[in-house]
Design goal:
Layout (H helix, E strand, L loop, with lengths): L2 E3 L8 E5 L3 H11 L4 E5 L2 H11 L3 E5 L7 H10 L8 E5 L4 H9 L4 E4 L4 H48 L5 H20 L7 H13 L6 E6 L2 E6 L12 H14 L6 E7 L8 E7 L5
Parallel strand pairs: 2-3, 2-4, 4-5, 5-6
Antiparallel strand pairs: 1-7, 7-8, 8-10, 9-10
Helix pairs in contact: 2-3, 5-6, 6-8, 7-8
Length: 289
């Protein structure tokens, strides 16, 4: 099988720049475009649409705009369940204390006064994005811990009972049934969407297994398959359980069968066997369903 190396793309933070004057948007874009992905908006209405469609990491928001002004945009952002922690910087030519108090009342995170100081813009943007990134990591860590606890609870309760109750000839069937239940549980909770191609299938598997605490990523993609690399065992640094390797292979097979009539999964290296990483090789040898 010929494999093509996947390219790791650095994720650039998205900065939504909102101002009804295009020249102001261009000015801020020129300052920040080297380090960030800039999303322009020229009205409050368009800003709210871009918040929903683009999921920006920070919003630089002019206050004085026709229609929905900056105060109202900020208020709506901060009231949204999925956007309340998105930093909003109010940009204004107004210097009155009352205007700043009003911005605080709608939960703005910071202020910039026109004309904008380049270094101040760069510094405040970087600082707020760092705080946002830290918050996002905490949220992801919490979700991973919850998933780990769910999965480990299943294994803790089932494995001792099952392997005391069955002979060695039936263990393969038990693993198959267990992987089916685990995959269905994790799929319903974290994926739901049917993969439409090989890349989405590989991504779905990484999402599922990484919810347990692993760090699987796509190492290579080819026409007929892909390779996955993992550097962290969900079971920790000590007392690593090789059962995860067997379950991981079985779960990956089940994910693959959602898209292909037959697949082959080979575990070439595992942390449980003393290697520094896990390496799964997947061949999609069946027809696309």
């Amino acid at each position: 099988m010929t494999m093509l190396k996947s390219k790791e793309n650095m994720k650039r933070s998205k900065v939504l720049v909102v101002d009804d004057l295009p020249t102001n948007v261009k000015l801020i874009t020129a300052i920040l475009k080297r380090d960030y992905e800039i999303i322009p908006a020229y009205s409050g209405e368009e800003a709210l649409e871009k918040v929903d469609s683009e999921n920006p990491d920070i919003v630089l928001l002019d206050i004085m705009m026709p229609g929905i002004d900056g105060y109202e945009v900020c208020k709506i952002i901060k009231q949204g369940d999925s956007t309340r922690f998105t930093p909003v910087v109010m940009i204004t030519a107004l210097s009155d204390v009352g205007d700043r108090i009003k911005a605080i009342e709608v939960d703005a995170d910071d202020f910039l006064t026109k004309p904008i100081n380049t270094q101040e813009l760069i510094t405040r943007t970087r600082s707020l994005l760092k705080a946002k990134h830290f918050h996002d990591q905490l949220v992801k860590s919490k979700a991973i811990i919850e998933a780990q606890n769910d999965f480990r609870a299943i294994l803790t309760n089932l494995l001792p009972f099952l392997f005391r109750s069955i002979d060695s000839s039936r263990k393969t069937e038990v693993i198959r049934q267990m992987s089916e239940q685990v995959e269905l549980f994790l799929w319903a909770k974290h994926i739901q969407k049917q993969p439409e191609n090989m890349l989405e299938m590989a991504q779905s598997f990484c999402i599922l297994i990484n919810k347990l605490g692993a760090t699987f990523s796509i190492d290579k993609m080819g026409d007929k398959g892909f390779m996955l690399l993992n550097t962290k065992c969900p079971w920790g640094d000590t007392n690593i359980n090789p059962m995860f390797c067997i379950l991981g292979k079985a779960i990956l097979t089940r994910v693959g069968l959602r898209l292909y009539s037959d697949i082959s999964v080979d575990i070439e290296k595992t942390i449980a066997a003393g290697d520094n990483y896990c390496f799964f090789k997947v061949l999609c040898i069946g027809d696309n369903l």
